[in-house]
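dumping these here so i dont lose them again. two proteins, back to back, each one seq then structure tokens. dont judge the mess
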Amino acid sequence: MKTWTLRGATTSYIVGVPDHGQWAQLVAWGPHDGLSPVEVVGTEHFLPRADVEPLEYAVRGVRYAAPVDLVVSGPDGTDELRPLFTGATAEDESLELSFTDGALGLRLHYRVLGDVVERWVSVHNDGTDELTLHRHDSAGFVVPNGTLKYLWGEWNSEFQQADVSLDRGRFTIGSAQGITGHSYSPYLVVDGDVAYGVQLAWSGSWEMSADVDTTGLMRIQAGRTSSSLGIKLGSGETWVSPKAVGACSAEGVDGLARVFHAYERSTSRKRTPKVLYNSWFATEFDIRADHQLELARRAASIGVETFVVDDGWFVGRSDDTGGLGDWDVDPAKFPDGLGAFIGQLKEIGLDFGLWVEPESVSPSSDLAKQHPEWILRTPGRDPVLIRNQLLLDLSRDDVAEFVWTTLDRLLSSYDIKYLKWDANRPRLDSGDQRRDLDGRVVANLYGVLDKIRSAHPDVYVEGCAGGGARVDLGTAARVDTLWPSDNTAPLDRLGIQRGFRTGFAPHLMSSWVTDAVGTHDGRERSLDFRFHVAMAGVLGIGADLSRWNDEQLKTATWHIEQYKGIRELVADSKVYGLSAGVQYVGTTRSVVFLWETGDGNVRGTLPTRPRRVPLAGLDPRKNYRVGDEVHPGSYLLQVGVAFDGPADSACLVVEPVD
């Protein structure tokens, strides 16, 4: 067998091609010092050998009974391929394995970044006849069996953590919504002696499955959802899958999260997040320039740096039934013009941000009347109306050009430093399935986001989709931060953020302080608690500041000042989950957030033991200052910091003193 080793920071991924050249298979994947081969021994009696081997990419025609990753049919009606290995290209930490079967060329692509393995495939049609791709996954990852963990949810309740034991059989999650979706995240983790995880970098419909075979190995498949008519591949054309990203860590699921975080930072721009104020919860659609300016002055007085005007600034938008698509400033709301308003913000020291939802259109809008052909619909059917809005057919290049030129006009005409891109409905209309609708829509979405970054590099972009319905590695690589959920209530949000951080880095986690009451847990928490929850990500304020008293404003001023001193550490550090919070460990210091999530009234009224929270990521040989106290690192790692007073939360900076 010919083998290739892709060496990461602490882990290795070894892939091989047997001498017969019929497939590629996993040889080993894991930490450098604990690498054990994945090997299937014994004789098969009923199935072909390919159905029991740990295949890297399973093609129908090579594998039959076990799940496959690629099914292709040609004009003769067959759906079996038997590609043979033709060569490999390896350089640095990348690898390309080539296989051919007549007119079809299949390439398996690998790239290592840190301890992450990116995998994707490309399929090329060298023949004269059209081919159809019926199934087209990005990769199959073979791992030891263990507890399977995933993230589920719904609107206002995203990133809930769950697990399942899969002794045999198949477990599948996905989205058929044309968007990543609230229901599941494209993320599966296997927790065992070594934790393994897979994510998919795709913002359309997707599917991930885990299968456990009779040998006890688990195989995770990740890819785009197959359409009913498949993807047509014409003569000379190449189809490229989205990337599937695999990672492993000997430090468990918490360590696996740190591997994913490091990868996401490597694909992101290093931008220091500014503290923002968003006026939505204070005004909703009732936008008046004088009132917005009043809120802006109060926001500036507590240390806010960016003021964002949310939904309702454009013509025809007095509620959610109109206006989408007509992206012109409403003169009734900004009588002196938006430029003058931005100038007033500058005078009080604030940057300006703007909300948009460029993929949607209101049925009553001028755009809908002028270009009815731009509305996504299934031929012969009325388009599906959700939240009083329709979708533009972003698979069309003229629609993509409209979206780009609209955003470019706004960003060029006004001094906009922050763009909040929202998407408040799924894509359910199937349209004409003879074309790759999902692929074209996502490609054009990515294209517009890439153009914004290239033409307007100073604009900080937030990705939002009715909360966290478009949180995935594909979007994360093209925006500066993501909105995990519309739920900003403190205890609800804490659980959402805990799940979010298992797969996504803190610099991607936009979080606001509001006055919201919990959807699931309505217990009251202090303003300090709310700030500490939001400061654990990218801090924003969304409360109606005109209702805050002087004491609340003073508290906000203190927390915002403290956040500015730690925000780069939060955005660029190793994250460790603690028993009562989270710790961000940087090269020179750490910050610890602690939250009381139980019934704190019990403490002090019944006999209890003093509460200590052990820390992580410190050097046991050094001494550290925590507030007014100094302790050895070994003490802080084993015993921890005190969290036993009346406060329901804490933010502690931990710094070495020697």
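---- next one ----
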Amino acid sequence: MRRLLLAGAAALALCGTAGMASAQTFRWANDGDVNSMDPYARNETFLLTFTANIYEPLVRRNRELKVEPALAESWQQTSPTVWRFNLRRNVRFSDGTPFTADDVVFSAERVRAQGSNLTAVLASVKEIRKIDDFTVEFETSQPNPIFLEEITTWTMMSRRWAEANNATRSMDLTSGQENFATRNAMGTGPFVLVSREPDRRTVLRPNPNWWDRAEHNLQEVQFNVIANDGTRVAALLSGEIDMIYTVPPQDTDRLSRAPNIRIHQQAELRTIFLGMDQARDELLKSDVRGRNPFRDVRVRRAMNMVIDREAIRTRIMRNQSRSTNLMIGPGVNGFVEAEDRIPRPDIEAARRLLAEAGYPNGFGVTMDCPNDRYVNDEAICTAIVPMLARIGIRVQLNAQTRARYFAEILAPRYNTSFYLLGWTPATYDAHNTLYNIMASRDPSRQRGVFNSGGWSNAEFDRLTDAIAVETTPARRQEMINQAMRIHADEVGHIPLHQQTVVWAARNTITLQQMADNYFPLRFVRVGQ
């Protein structure tokens, strides 16, 4: 009911502003909000892409997803482990203060400090050195062939602004903490934050002193939260908004036939998967006492055997996904089609495995699921409940908004037993997923930060470390294949699919759709 009321309020607010919008006002909507204006608060695509309109990295992605200069105008490797960046001169933050090496060093300290959810972005870095006001060096512990790709999502913050507003540390969203940077922002990027109403509307305007040449023609950007699918689609069709970031699969065909509406669609790099707590001796949310059924590989294999990915693809996703049994998909460096072997559903074999594991009558467990994060996330979880029930696993579904959901599964103690999650490797390389999602949790190395289930395998970890420094492509690929086979055999997670990115916009809108679901406003134009 609360979501419906919020959706209704958002729609009424949009009606009130529709007539006032100028040709260069861009109004867009999503089913969920950006949970913070702090770019280090959560390693989540929507938060990172939104804040990247205000804050900028040293190097960024262009329209073709290639790395290009941003706040660093050039760089060199002075040794196999040292990267020197020459900063762009005459860049200023939107408050007028100059951007210098001090801000880079500060941003490195802040992103690695407690409270940041992006600690892994500099996991390979041993030391950051200021050479002069416009030169910085990063020294890695070992050669890192994908270092540039790793830092494309790490944006620079102003030391002076953070210190003046007591925001030198990022606040942990899982605990509900806030500071000045949670609701305010000040960067060097193409847009500045004008107003912020959480769960309702956020307004941006162009930064008049941006260092780069503006390709957009926007005078104002209004981002609106409309949780209800039907209300969001109706707002686009009526002209109250110009673009929908998340299109419900069931509405794609109708929107494609609507006059003045254009569908933007392509395969996404994100993999949607299920995770299971394999770390605790006893599950937090289960009726099994004194043991953890997910620690038995036979239980995990049985679950993998009854998940009908094809049914999810055709009935839930309306053919807007690619089924998988790997944690990476096409477009990610290291993916090999021949390695992606999807098991056929086999209920009888799965029942036998459960019985062998000591659960002939199954067991009960709670499944944590978001309802406003991924395409049809709650519907996917709802469909999985009866699939598992066929072998006696009784699932109680706990679907929540992304803020509450992430607070559970990404809490310091990972307060979940069974969950659905999605991951896009920011580097477009397999190692990013191996290191962050699949490798054993090791806080001292910022490894496995998002391995909420705690799956662990020593040989897999050894391969992950070797892949990080291997520079011979063929040898590196074979190690990736070996790691993926270990994970698939042990069913460390249950991959489901790579979802399709589907946006919808009025045909007067020009935009750039990215395979990583980033939405850079600097490429948006409003016109006839």
